[in-house]
Amino acid sequence: MKTKIKELRSWHRLTQEELAFAVGTTRQTITSIETGKYIASLPLAYKIARYFDLPIEEVFDLNDYIKEEK
Questions:
Q1: Which one-letter DSSP state was computed for residue 53?
Q2: Annotation: CATH topology of 2-69
């Protein structure tokens, strides 16, 4: 799943570790989400989006995922 997390972190000058701490996960999880190796759970996606004060749809591109499910 594509995300804008890396771009948002860069904009806010955050490290993966800082974001991970803020949303209650590990740096490795943030890395895996950014590289598309892991899909964030709904609660984690919500926390990340809320941290950046954005709707989930603006942080995570659900279109590719939805197409795969059909």
A1: T
A2: 434 Repressor (Amino-terminal Domain) (1.10.260)
Residue 45's CB is within 10 A of a number of other CB atoms, namely 20
Question: pLDDT tens across 52-65, in order?
Answer: 999 999 999 977 66
pTM: 0.87
Q: Is 53 left (phi over 0), alpha (psi -120 to 50) or beta?
A: left
Cβ distance 31 to 16 under 8 Å?
yes
- CA-closest candidate to residue 56, choices 41, 66, 46, 43: 46
28-40 confidence digits (pLDDT tens) = 999 999 999 999 9
Instruction: From residue 33, give the alpha-carbon distance in Å to each of 61, 70.
Output: 12, 22
